[in-house]
Design brief:
Elements lengths: L1 E4 L8 H7 L4 E11 L6 E12 L7 E3 L2 E3 L10 E8 L5 E8 L6 E5 L5 E5 L5 E2 H7 L5 H8 L3 H9 L5 H12 L7 H12 L8 H11 L5
Antiparallel strand pairs: 1-2, 2-3, 4-5, 6-7, 7-8, 8-9, 9-10
Amino acid sequence: VDFKLCEDEKKYTIEECKERDATYSAPLKVKVRLHNKETGEFTEHDIFMGDLPLMTATGTFVINGAERVIVSQLVRSPGIYYVIGHDKVGKELYTSQVIPNRGAWLEYETDSNDIFYVRVDRTRKLPVTVLIRALGIGTNAEITELFGEEEKLTATFEKDPSTSYEEGLLELYKKIRPGEPLSVDSAESIVAGMFFDARRYDLARVGRYKYNKKLAYKN
């Protein structure tokens, strides 16, 4: 008979969705009318059809905690992209996307608590130090020696459940292959294939040029 999008029944606000890795959405309900042929009576019921993502005031969607935008038939060229945003109190938040010509996307972001996160191939976010450990820089001391003393790094260490190369591999593996048996050998194979196999991961010449230009490296 009718349908309505119940925006007043949203579970979380936009900021809460980002913090909880949730989708900014509202329930879609359909009013159906049933006809009892024996009695001739009609009854109406509201049927929940599902949660429909809502567009924010800036024209984006928040899906599983990540802010997305729908761009029809337009694919960003390989390279690295930066965005500076703000939280509710005006604190600067940073996001970055590393888009290859072929392979897994890397999406970095900071939150209001100065924790540095990464999403690997659009999976759920995890502390960036987990990825760093999985790439072979295992301990806090080694990471600090490479990147220096940094407040965001210290805050991320506290959020990171891993403390070594092997633990970092397994934490990353749980995000990439949820539900599969944990194995260091399997995790090493996945990471090697995902980032160090030219057949599966490639920035291409355009991506490498733009990446180096952003970081002021010579091509």
